[in-house]
Amino acid sequence: MQRTKMNNPYLIEPPFSVSFSGGESSAFMLRNILDAYGGQLPSKSKVLFANTGLEHEKTYKFVDEVSSRWSVDVTWIEYDPENRFKVVTPDSARTNGEPFDELIEKKGFLPTPVSRMCTTNLKMRAMIHYLKSLGWDDWDSAIGLRADEPKRALGIKGDYASEHPVCPMYHAGHTLEDVEEYWSKQAFRLEIPRWMGNCCGCFLKSRGRLEMVGDAEPGQLEWWSKTEQRTGKTFRIDRPNYSQLLHQITIQGRLFEDDGSTIPCRCTD
Fold it and tell me: What pTM was computed for the model?
């Protein structure tokens, strides 16, 4: 249950965290939370960006710019195989998939649509264990799910009993249209297509969507291809692997349209 003041969904009772994925929806949410508190967050609140090492380079720039322009402290966190998380900076954050590599080495298998251990460990649990290290034992976690995503917003659950996910955008009635309208009027924004997303090569994307990514920026699929080759395994068994996909795009171009079958994930919220 979300704890808010004066019926303003963005005025969340501390302690609370803001899960900032690096996308425009979660940035819109953060802006509204800041405005609800007069431009400065209260004590015992944290804005968290969990770095998988595979976000688009413009995502990193956007997160840093949000922090600078809005004078808000964004804590950058990465998965650590020994301590579950570590705090990094924009300068020390690893951007070639290293946190993801360490998780795969630790677990001994690749994530799949059925076993999404990447989201769970690289994002959700890394943030949770960071907050627990601060002595937090019960808090709300603001997630950027909108009013046009009702099933996801109403069905979202925490990974631990101490974390209570809340969706202020949903309760405020804000939709993608509101997000787009806001950013269209700003002096800066995330400079990547919305369809590409922050984790560009994610295996949860539809084949058509991945073909779009591979056609526009083939380098975004290289880590995924090399990881499948290195491990001898694949992220999905229901379609060609990443190397085959890259080869197809090079030789034949795109064969499939985006059919809307991309699976939503907390990495992008």
Answer: 0.93
